[in-house]
Amino acid sequence: MTQRIVVVGAALFDGGRLLAARRSAPPELAGRWELPGGKVEEGETPEAALARELREELGVAAEVVERVPGEWPLKPPYVLQVWSARLRPASAAPRPLQDHDELRWLAPDEIWHVDWLDQDVPAVRETLTRVLGVR
């Protein structure tokens, strides 16, 4: 049996707006939007992995707040877990450093104006319901 690999995604909020990141690679994902994050490495907690990924991908210092209930299948053996997070007060503004070519802060009425990766859609929907109370 193949061991599952956890991928963590950040529901990074700023004043009720959600940060979306547009993929620049690989080619089959380029131009689509996702919650920023990445793989949990061996020996890491999901929270530590998410803080590391946000530092590496966006150049920010973030506080991981709580897990959004649920788990969403990706390409086997990967599964997605989402955690709400917020920028630490002294953090730099997010900027795309790797894997992404654009970032957008989306208000609740703008969330579905971007072309999300298929696997992120249910996670984003659950996050909006659980964190913002938006359906």
TrEMBL record:
Membership in a protein family: Belongs to the Nudix hydrolase family.
Organism: Streptomyces achromogenes
Name of this chain's protein: 8-oxo-dGTP diphosphatase
UniProt domain Nudix hydrolase: residue ranges: 3-129
Alphabetized UniProt keyword annotations: DNA damage, DNA repair, DNA replication, Hydrolase, Magnesium, Metal-binding, Mutator protein
Lineage: Bacteria, Bacillati, Actinomycetota, Actinomycetes, Kitasatosporales
Cofactor list: Mg(2+)
E.C. number(s) listed in UniProt: 3.6.1.55
Highest taxon listed in the record's lineage: Bacteria
Reactions performed catalytically: 8-oxo-dGTP + H2O = 8-oxo-dGMP + diphosphate + H(+)
Gene Ontology molecular functions: 8-oxo-7,8-dihydrodeoxyguanosine triphosphate pyrophosphatase activity
